[in-house]
Design goal:
Distance between the termini: 22 Å
CATH architecture of the largest domain: Orthogonal Bundle
Bound molecules: 2-acetamido-2-deoxy-beta-D-glucopyranose
CATH class of the largest domain: Mainly Alpha
Shape: globular
Number of helices: 19
Strand order of the largest sheet: 1-2
Mean pLDDT: 86
Largest sheet: 2 strands, antiparallel
Number of strands: 6
Amino acid sequence: MKFLMVLFAVLGTVICAPLPEAAPEIAVSSGATVDGKGETKTDTYMDNADANKDGQLSIDELLEASGSFLPFDVIIDAFKMADKDTDSYLKGEEVGAALEEAHLLATMEIAKVTAADDTDENGKISGEEAKNATDIMTNPEHFEEDFATADADKDGELSGAEIITFIVLQQSKRLSGDNDAFLKPADNDGDNKVNLEEVTTAVKGYTPKAVIEEAFHQADANNDGFLDAAEHLLYKQLEGSLIAAAFNTSFVEVDEDMDGLLNLSDTLKLAESLQIDGIDGAFVSTYFDLASRSEATLIDQQEAVEFLTTGKTGIPQLFEEFDKDASKTINSDEASAMAVELALDAEPFKAAFAAVDKDANGELSPFELRAALVDYDQKSAATAAEASA
Ligand SMILES: *[C@@H]1O[C@H](CO)[C@@H](O)[C@H](O)[C@H]1NC(C)=O
Ligand SMILES: *[C@@H]1O[C@H](CO)[C@@H](O)[C@H](O)[C@H]1NC(C)=O
Ligand SMILES: *[C@@H]1O[C@H](CO)[C@@H](O)[C@H](O)[C@H]1NC(C)=O
């Protein structure tokens, strides 16, 4: 079930690592590659990228040309580093410098990913390793096809530039093609751009206030107060790493005994400090039991991140929709309505309800509802397996 997958979604952590010995050749636009030896020729790249043929490159032109070859933050950072005279255009030697910088940043990214995700330390990322790697697997729905496409030498693993291809594919199929998926839900007035207010509304329940503002500010490359498609993709990416950083800072502050674990009252303080729209004290108190993956009453940082940034999805979302009497429990009538809406088989779902309702009071707490859905899922998977055997 999709909402359970969302419930268990995790954010990647950022780890720094040394450069690998041999720098790989990396594609920076169609037909243009950089090998990291400081001899980059820019003719082919300029042919591709300089859309208005004014002999210089704006950040938008760079994003258009390289958006399906390099991660967005690599493009933006390379642009900033190379734009020495800070006139917001790359010209002459700045173009080659930007491509060299992009190569260096992409190579560092490969090293970082390999250090973090290559658990068997063979220098490559296998399919299983990639599936566990929440820093690069950002689009589970397209995992199989993106992994297969990125695996250029078809050895079943990703290494070198293949890792960059995978990251970019997962981020967005193509700059313009994925535009809709990112932009449409947030874009209230249909102008194909989003302002800070629209972004704030779109991420309600997920993102600390300060992170929204910082990511917006950084992503708005041309400072016009709006994010266009390319900038919005960059926003999404920045948001992820800034959320990780914000949790890092706030977690340490509330974890007074510094054991890396938070109880309910610590978590209330964490929520207060992060200011995530909709994730207030009442929310934390009601759903805290869901925060731990086990039955523990203390949660670690990863669990805190998951709990507070996916707060509006999964079980809380079901409560919002089906707990009509706002009792913070689901009674059997409410459960029946939910079964109909989610197209669950009535009888097995009733059985799951009864099985978890240990005190037989006819009401399920959020924690019990989750257990009931897990129980239902497991039993129906088993039944389906039997039927097909
Ligand atoms: C993936 O994660 C699971 C659960 O933590 C672990 O058991 C498994 O060994 C990991 N697989 C790889 C290839 O790292
Ligand atoms: C968060 O903290 C961990 C452990 O201290 C560190 O490795 C990681 O780089 C930090 N992440 C961010 C985004 O600051
Ligand atoms: C929660 O943990 C903090 C230390 O992090 C401790 O001071 C506090 O007493 C605990 N609260 C409860 C209700 O256990």
